[in-house]
């Protein structure tokens, strides 16, 4: 079967008015890429039944020439401006019915809140409805039921809630197996590596172009630029090819390559029962925030110091005023003294300090905007300091600095492991 | 003239592959909303000249029945996969020429980097090209020139670079005056207020529906849900009507209404030369990060403590172990003791503490998931503590807690001002 022409539709006036950002479409496109499919188009529409219907009619028309897979989010909620079900019924000429399982679930939710079944408003009940003769997608997070509606030969319209947590669970657990069944294809394997502080185009020239003939036949590749690192993605039905690419990548970039540092750092600190504390100047708490993003981080993150002013560097972390005066707050010496202070006050296994110039002001000829020193003290007592000049604006410099600090932690944990 | 049917197009395979998020379309829609226009559709396409051309042809066809304004970003860069100019030339049957001013600008940029004019690659030079007989939109940030191409009666295709900083400058400084000239209309005024810890639908029912007949004729309204607050937007050509709405809103919600707290807190702390320090448990640095997002925050933010573990609450902030044992880490007493500790150690004018259960684990019957205590000590020495039960997942609870802490700071600063 020809691969389907895939369109992703997001409905919601809050999106087309620019008051809310649609993150669902990109997330789904990414999932579909991992399944080996490319999306041809995103469409975003306001909550306007005429506009939605006309768009769906155009897609239905298109199914006459090729298989179409349309994935739509939003418009399944309980409010007046939720039109998805109504529009799909108009498109198909079908009637809807209430899914028994979803009705029981809704009833239980109401009862757990001390309400009666009879309190359920018709608009709320409508969320349990789907068109006749469609494939139902259960919602295990919220109330609105999703569904897969046939719209032509090998062509389907998938409707899912717009709430990201509901859509994601439904997509992963319910829709993905269904799509694999409808559009069978060879199993794809995907490998991802991160490269630190290197530009996308340099990587493309020095690695992808340089090895294209020798390594890349039958391999799809992609690259995403992030703050501090690029994510290199490789996809193929042939695992051996991918392993060869990864091994080449590792030998070409031994010092700047990593796996997902956020996941690795979390898992490794938990597994080895190691603790960590931080001291942040220019990042103002961003590193601590990132270290506590994951549930369970309390097993390793014990705390830290936000020493934004020089006075706080002295009083909270005992950085000698001599050092601040002689070398400045953004210096190897200050980063090192901060790390010693964090370690003394917290007794953590790992201590990390960040001090830098996030701007927009404060840059000089010798310490330009973006200059950041990062100190790291390992469980064996050794201290390393690293300096960087990060590009971009204030936000970019702060993101770069805190991500790179996690990369240094990754490297240190990795060395211990070896 | 009939208001134009507005379509926003983003081109870029990195977007339709889900590797990059399109923030341009929403930003433009928001700007257009402020000009009084609603967008009918967003379209996102991969870097595929056939797909782009076919979409533009559909829009050109549509101009036969109504005025169309299409705003497209991306595809004007120097790489192989930039197809916008080529596609527009195919659509219009026109030729392109190099804009003299842009050529000179490009030459200067090259010279400032120590390169020759002759070093400029043809693909780079292409960025100075526009179709014949179009309105040029200068690029003062980057190189690629934007343009407004007529595509039918009162209908235009606007092409701008995809780099957000370039597009935004071009939109604001070059395109907006042009749009006002092409589609003249009465001046709109916009007012925005924030309401804290109230649901969108409750606000809609209790305020908008309740006052619809009396206050809302000739007024457009919108609402955006954020973490901890909703943003209420009102728009009209009649300022008096807006002022009446705002005054009614203030009298109905005196305790939970605010302006943009991020801006107000920053400006007020700078203006009054007040300092602030924080102590964070469950937010792990997020409040410090938010307080240092704006350039110039070093004038008020001096530092803080990340006391994630109970040991750190004791050793860094001197929270008595009795309090932690008797009342727990998430309690009024701990929030108060934290605030006292912050104040003693930093001597800041304002001290703010946050301690709560961000989950997913740790909730109990008496302290459910989302329970957060916030303490605030004002310059006059008074301490207030507030408790909340925030909804959602870990990320949502942490965002809610840190935003609400800023709202408490807002209220305290506002009271001083009165």
TrEMBL record, chains A, B:
Coiled-coil region list: none
Pfam family, one: CinA
InterPro entries: CinA, CinA-like_C, CinA_C, Competence-induced_CinA, MoaB/Mog-like_dom_sf, MoaB/Mog_dom
Superkingdom of origin: Bacteria
Family annotation (Gene3D superfamilies): CinA-like (3.90.950.20), MoaB/Mog-like domain (3.40.980.10)
PANTHER family in the record: NICOTINAMIDE-NUCLEOTIDE AMIDOHYDROLASE PNCC, NMN AMIDOHYDROLASE-LIKE PROTEIN YFAY
Record protein name field: CinA-like protein
């Amino acid at each position: 079967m020809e691969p389907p022409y895939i369109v992703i539709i997001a409905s919601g006036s809050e999106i087309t008015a620019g008051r809310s950002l649609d993150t669902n479409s990109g997330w789904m496109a990414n999932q579909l890429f991992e399944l080996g499919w490319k999306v041809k188009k995103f469409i975003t529409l306001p909550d306007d039944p005429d506009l939605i219907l006309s768009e769906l009619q155009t897609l239905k028309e298109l199914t006459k020439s090729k298989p179409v897979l349309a994935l739509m989010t939003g418009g399944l909620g309980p409010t007046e401006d939720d039109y998805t079900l109504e529009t799909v019924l108009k498109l198909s000429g079908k009637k809807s019915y209430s899914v028994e399982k979803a009705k029981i679930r809704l009833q239980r939710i109401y009862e757990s809140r001390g309400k009666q079944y009879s309190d359920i408003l018709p608009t709320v009940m409508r969320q349990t409805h789907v068109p006749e003769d469609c494939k139902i997608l259960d919602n295990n997070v919220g109330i609105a039921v999703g569904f897969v509606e046939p719209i032509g030969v090998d062509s389907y319209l998938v409707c899912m809630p717009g709430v990201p947590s509901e859509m994601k669970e439904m997509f992963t657990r319910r829709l993905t197996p269904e799509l694999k069944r409808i559009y069978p294809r060879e199993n794809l394997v995907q490998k991802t590596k991160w490269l630190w502080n290197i530009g996308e185009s340099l990587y493309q020239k020095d690695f992808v172009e340089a090895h294209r003939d020798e390594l890349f036949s039958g391999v799809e590749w992609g690259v995403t630029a992030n703050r501090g690192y690029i994510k290199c993605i490789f996809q193929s039905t042939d695992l051996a090819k991918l392993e060869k690419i990864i091994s080449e990548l590792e030998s070409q970039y031994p010092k700047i390559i990593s796996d997902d540092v956020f996941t690795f750092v979390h898992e490794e600190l938990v597994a080895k029962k190691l603790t960590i504390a931080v001291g942040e100047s220019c990042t103002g708490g961003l590193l601590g925030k990132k270290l506590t993003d994951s549930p369970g981080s309390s097993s390793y993150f014990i705390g830290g110091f936000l020493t934004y002013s020089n006075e706080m560097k002295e009083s909270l972390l005992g950085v000698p005023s001599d050092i601040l005066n002689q070398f400045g707050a953004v210096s190897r010496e200050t980063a090192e003294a901060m790390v010693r202070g964090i370690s003394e006050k917290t007794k953590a296994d790992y201590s990390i300090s960040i001090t830098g110039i996030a701007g927009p002001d404060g840059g000089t000829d010798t310490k330009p905007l973006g200059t950041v020193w990062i100190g790291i003290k390992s469980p064996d007592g050794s201290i390393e300091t690293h300096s960087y000049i990060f590009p971009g604006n204030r936000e970019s410099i702060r993101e770069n600095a805190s991500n790179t600090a996690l990369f240094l932690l990754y490297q240190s944990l990795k060395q211990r492991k070896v």
